[in-house]
C-alpha cells in the first residue's frame, strides 16, 4: 500500500556530550491515516527510535526531542553515532 507523507517540521540538534555531531529529524504526517511519526538521521547504540504513531504534531515533536535527550545521555557511555536511512 502506498504511504504518502507530508513533512510537517524538520528539526536539528547539536551540542551533544562527547560529540561534535549535528543531527536532524523530521515529524511527518501520513496522508492516508492522518497519524504523525518521526524520522531520524542517526541514533546512538541502545537508544530506541521514536516509533509512533502519534496523535498530534506536538506529541511527535516531544518524542523526537526526548529521543535526542536519550541519545545525549547514552553518549556518556558510548560516544558513537549510527547513521540511518533518512528520507
Instruction: Please report the distance between the alpha carbons of the first and last residues.
Output: 18 Å
Name the poorly predicted regions.
none
Strand order of the largest sheet: 1-2-3
Please report which band the strand proportion falls in: under 5%, 5-15%, 15-25%, 25-35%, 35-45% or over 45%.
Answer: 25-35%
Largest sheet: 3 strands, antiparallel
Helix-strand pattern: EEEEHE
Mean pLDDT metric: 92
What class, by secondary structure content? alpha+beta
Number of separate domains: 1
Fraction in helix: 10-25%
The backbone outline, from C-alpha atoms, is elongated
Number of helices: 1
Number of E strands: 5
Radius of gyration: 13 Å
Task: Describe it.
The chain has one domain (5-83). The chain contains 1 helix and 5 strands. A hairpin with a 5-residue loop joins β2 (23-30) and β3 (36-40). 21% of the residues lie in helices and 32% in strands. The protein has one helix at 57-74, and strands spanning 5-13, 23-30, 36-40, 42-44, 81-83. The longest helix is centred in the C-terminal third of the chain and has 18 residues, at 57-74. The model has no long low-confidence stretch (mean pLDDT 92). Strands 1-2-3 form a 3-stranded antiparallel beta sheet, with helices on one face. By secondary structure, the protein is an alpha+beta fold.
Amino acid at each position: 500500500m502506498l504511504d504518502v507523507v507530508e513533512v510537517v517540521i524538520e528539526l536539528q540538534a547539536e551540542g551533544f556530550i562527547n560529540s561534535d555531531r549535528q543531527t536532524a529529524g523530521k515529524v511527518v504526517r501520513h496522508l492516508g491515516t492522518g497519524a504523525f511519526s518521526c524520522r531520524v538521521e542517526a541514533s546512538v547504540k541502545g537508544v530506541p527510535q521514536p516509533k509512533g504513531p502519534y496523535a498530534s504534531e506536538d506529541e511527535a515533536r516531544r518524542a523526537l526531542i526526548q529521543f535526542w535527550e536519550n541519545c545525549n545521555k547514552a553518549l556518556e557511555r558510548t560516544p558513537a553515532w549510527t547513521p540511518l536511512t533518512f528520507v
